[in-house]
Request: fold
Amino acid sequence: SVTYQADIRYSGQGLTLTVDFDLKRLKSKGLSVIGDPFDDMHRQLFTFALDADKEIVNVRAVAQGKSAEIDAKKVTSSGSRTPVAAAKIGTSKVFMDGKNMEANLYRRDQLKAGNKIDGPAIVLEMDSTTVILSGHTGNVDKFGNILIAPSA
Reply:
């Protein structure tokens, strides 16, 4: 389905309000199809409507269709063949909890479902970095999420 919206304001004002409108009604009845609901909305929100010119700032068509079912991609399970050590790329000195310590560094794309990462650790990937604090553990779920919680 396609719906239409206009962002409108009174001339000289900065605040816009969004009004939904029917394109066929706009074509047959004119701009009052947008202006009148704007006045009503302004009156409802601010207790008054101005007898002033209005400006249409934006007009848009919003297309909405039925979304396809999307299956979340699952990551490979670690089993016993791929321990978390396979994703380890080194160590780094870090300052956590008021002291210097050494943290393990891991590649995110090498982690497998079931991997357990004890902090302090840093998980690196192209667009983000995940820090697992000392005294915390990260568990990789079947979708590759790292669920971090205090160590038991």
